[in-house]
Design brief:
mainly beta, single chain, seven-stranded mixed beta sheet, four-stranded antiparallel beta sheet
Length: about 120
């Protein structure tokens, strides 16, 4: 069993910054990829950014140049630095972890960007 614990969500004005963090605990052997997804009310969940154990990083086009994903393999954590936030970034952000034979989701953390 693996637990993903997220932190860092909150309320910020447009143009501001937030940093989200996710820590994986439990049996983390075989962790391959971690990612951040988000889901706004009435919208489907979408991939924001991902980082693989080998270092490959991918971003959604909507956040390129504004968000940065990073990981710490020793601590089994992943962070998302969000700069130049826009109201359309408002959503619940979910941490995701992919293992050799299983996947896990965090509980989600609310990010609200006011105009």
């Amino acid at each position: 069993q693996v637990q993903l614990v997220e932190s860092g969500g909150g309320l910020v004005q447009a143009g501001g910054s937030l940093r989200l963090s996710c820590a994986a605990s439990g049996n983390t052997f075989g962790l391959n990829t971690m990612a951040w997804y988000r889901q706004a009310p009435g919208k489907q969940r979408e991939l924001v950014a991902s980082i693989a154990s080998g270092g490959r990083i991918n971003y959604a086009d909507s956040v390129k140049g504004r968000f940065t994903i990073s990981g710490d393999n020793a601590k089994n954590t992943v962070s998302l630095q969000m700069n130049s936030l826009k109201p359309e970034d408002t959503a619940v952000y979910y941490c995701f972890a992919n293992f050799i034979r299983r996947t896990y989701w965090g509980q989600g953390t609310q990010v609200t960007v006011s105009s």
